[in-house]
Specification:
The chain is built from 6 helices and 3 strands. It has helices at residues 22-27, 31-34, 49-60, 62-85, 95-118, 136-150, and strands at 2-9, 13-19, 42-46. It has a 3-stranded antiparallel β-sheet, with no helix packed on it. It is elongated, with a radius of gyration of 34 Å. 0% of the residues are buried.
Length: 151
């Protein structure tokens, strides 16, 4: 297969087109099963395929797996909660500087919310527990209600 040309696609971006020679496919005995309706065999790959492969190899290595576990514990829950609960699905500003400000404000809000969960709340007054004395009449009434609901 020889590289022939670049192609662009709206969804996938820049693509590389590899195509076999017409004469090679014409003489091949497997052509009816390989490409019955086309004149020659063609492959289309993204132009960034070597970079994808390199990234995949790095992810599948020992260090990549360790970094994924660390990222899943630290960063991704924060981003997930910001997207899910704080409406950060889309950043409605222009430019990197504006997006940076939005992310800083979201991080500050998240950290304050987290901080508020772990601060101790001091009370201004202390409640005094009063001893309640049960009379025999109230105990009998309680037992009558309990038997009424249990039956």
């Amino acid at each position: 297969m020889l590289f022939k040309t670049f192609a662009t696609h709206a969804e996938t971006g820049l693509l590389k087109v590899y195509r076999a020679d017409y004469q090679d496919c014409k003489q091949c005995p497997l052509k009816p099963t390989c490409v019955p309706k086309s004149q020659c065999r063609q492959f289309i790959r993204t132009a960034y395929d070597p970079f994808y492969r390199r990234a995949l190899e790095r992810q599948q290595g020992r260090r990549g797996k360790r970094m994924k576990k660390l990222r899943q514990r630290t960063v991704e829950p924060v981003l997930g909660s910001l997207v899910e609960y704080n409406g950060l699905c889309k950043i409605n500003v222009r430019g990197k500087a504006g997006a940076h400000k939005v992310m800083l404000m979201a991080a500050i809000a998240f950290n304050l919310k987290k901080y508020m969960k772990f601060t101790t709340k001091s009370t201004l007054s202390q409640a005094i527990a009063l001893r309640v004395e049960w009379s025999s009449a109230s105990q009998g009434l309680f037992l009558d209600l309990a038997t009424l609901f249990l039956n």
